[in-house]
Design brief:
Layout (H helix, E strand, L loop, with lengths): L1 H14 L8 H15 L1 H9 L12 H23 L5 E3 L1 H11 L7 H20 L2 H8 L2 H22 L3 E3 L10 E3 L7 H19 L5 H20 L41 H37 L11 H17 L5 E3 L3 H6 L5 H16 L1 H4 L4 H16 L10 H16 L3 H18 L8 H14 L1 H7 L3
Antiparallel strand pairs: 1-4, 2-3
């Protein structure tokens, strides 16, 4: 017993579990909740990166899945052990879609060239962290905007849950309507998957109201069990399948059940070519692509970190985050590791909010999540047991918890209110944390200037606003350069 107590005390002291008002049990529950909330990336990332490059080569779904799980697991453990925060890392959805749709389609550019640009962007970001620039930018952001970031991410998380659960759906342009989103399919809630989401959401809310420990995790597990029973009985199938008509009553991403077994293949690691894109796109063209990737991973991660730290209560009264340099270094290395492993940039995952909502406050939760991700590399079929409809209720509830901080914004100060409103609005409306940050930063500089209070603007805010102007104007720049 003495040894066990000593070991527990050492773990407690190292991760500051008691100091942050948590417990080992809460950290484990939080780690599990985060894993379930983000495990879909092991299935989704290979699908996003499944296309062929200009030479007709593909990365291979099994290889991408294995590398996605391994790299995410190792980075998440590093975040937990070294930075000591409950932040999990995995391939960023914004960056992988950009490199797959925009960069990889350029003539002559191959997948190693594409991932080489991600490595270049990661190296630059790593240098910016080492020089203190990234941390300085974080500290230059006004407190009101930091709060708006938290609220915006909360709305964004809730929208992700609602859309991916099929409760809210995109309306195709061909439908002849100007409404971008609607309830269910054709304004109606259809299918067993929607029922799983509704049951999971009601159960989770009920457990939270009754203050039951592990409410989010219990909700996920109960919804997962219901989903697997319904699939076995009714054979619902996917909403979209190759060669078949769309099934609006099907599962959105993962059909619950055991998936196919594939051997672990890590041969993608080390295949990136950091200089290949420069030969095909030219120096200026390659640098522009790398710049877009850099800005996306730079500010996506910063915004996510602020939101999660504020929700976890680990942000100090001065608005600073303990070990922020370590958090940013791990995140920067995530871009290098992700690009070098041909799975795109890895960054702090917004779904970490599920674990924080479950009570995670320390790096021990990240260690649990990371270990499960590495295990998932060998047990990929088990991930398919958890459909997104079973996870979505937790994301909606976490969105509510983060949105509560909207009351802390000074809505009477128009110099903060307008940027805060644009930050909160554009994150979900453009499906991008970086876009919301850009709108907030630019409008903050403009409104303060219009107020005659330009002296209050930190010099770095001017620099960041200018960078975002170039980011938003990258399309016209590319047209001007004939790219």
């Amino acid at each position: 017993m003495a040894t066990a107590t000593a070991t527990t005390s050492a773990v407690d002291r190292y991760f500051k579990i008691s100091e942050r008002g948590s417990s080992v049990a809460r950290e484990i529950r939080g780690g599990l909740a985060t894993f379930f909330a983000m495990s879909y990336i092991v299935v989704l990332n290979p699908l996003i990166l499944s296309g062929a490059d200009s030479a007709g080569n593909t990365l291979g779904i099994p290889r991408v899945a294995a590398a996605t799980a391994l790299v995410a697991g190792l980075l998440t453990i590093a975040m937990g052990v070294w930075a000591k925060h409950p932040f999990a890392l995995a391939t960023g959805l914004g960056v992988n879609a950009f490199v797959a749709v925009t960069v990889a389609t350029n003539p002559g550019v191959t997948w190693p060239d594409v991932m080489g640009l991600v490595v270049v962007a990661g190296v630059v970001m790593f240098i910016l962290v080492l020089t203190g620039f990234r941390t300085a930018v974080f500290r230059a952001v006004p407190e009101g905007l930091k709060t708006a970031i938290v609220v915006g991410i909360g709305v964004f998380i809730a929208l992700i849950g609602l859309v991916n659960a099929g409760f809210v759906r995109r309306i195709p342009d061909a439908a002849g309507t100007t409404v971008p989103l609607g309830l269910g399919a054709g304004g109606k809630l259809l299918g067993w998957p929607t029922l799983v989401f509704v049951v999971g959401l009601v159960l989770t809310i009920a457990l939270m109201v009754r203050k039951v420990r592990g409410a989010l995790l219990i909700g996920i597990l109960a919804a997962t069990l219901l989903a697997n029973i319904l699939e076995q009985v009714f054979h619902v199938g996917p909403s979209v399948a190759p060669g078949k008509a769309p099934n609006p009553a099907g599962w959105s991403l993962v059909v619950p059940g055991l998936g196919d077994v594939s051997p672990v293949d890590l041969s993608l690691i080390g295949q990136a070519n950091p200089f290949g894109a420069f030969a095909h796109l030219g120096t200026l063209g390659a640098l522009l692509m790398a710049f877009v990737i850099l800005l996306s991973i730079f500010f996506d991660a910063m915004g996510t970190m602020v939101g999660l730290a504020r929700e976890a209560g680990t942000m100090g009264k001065d608005g600073q985050i303990p070990n922020v340099d370590r958090v940013l270094l791990v995140d920067a290395f995530g871009a290098i590791a992700g690009g070098g492993s041909s799975i795109s940039s890895n960054q702090i995952f917004v779904e970490s909010g599920a674990g924080i909502g479950e009570g995670a406050r320390t790096g021990l939760a990240s260690v649990v999540t990371g270990a499960l991700l590495i295990l998932a590399m060998f047990l990929t079929p088990l991930i398919n047991l958890v459909p997104f409809e079973a996870v979505a209720p937790a994301l909606v509830v976490v969105g509510f918890l983060m949105f509560q901080q909207v009351a802390k914004i000074d809505w009477h100060d128009i110099g903060i209110a307008i940027p805060a409103f644009l930050t909160i609005g554009l994150m979900p409306f453009t499906y991008s944390i970086a876009n919301g940050l850009g709108a907030g930063f630019i409008s903050y500089v403009l409104v303060r200037t219009f107020q005659g209070r330009a002296k209050e603007i930190h010099p770095l805010m001017w620099a960041v606003a200018a960078a975002f102007l170039l980011f938003f104007g990258i399309g016209p720049v590319e047209q001007l350069l004939g790219m």
